[in-house]
Amino acid sequence: MNMSVADYARECAARGLRGDYSVCRADFTVAQGYNYSDEEQAVWRTLCDRQTKLTMKLAHHS
Fold this sequence. Notes:
By secondary structure, this protein is an all-alpha fold.
């Protein structure tokens, strides 16, 4: 099925799905924003550090 981003956005909104589909490109990608606050950066740093440690612990070492 070939559907435009605008049609897809309307369908998603009608179903109650979250997200701002109005900023999607035709391939459903979006531009990356880089204006994060120091607090937001700290949250992501914590999450990435946690996941890195978990991956090192659980990943197969071959």
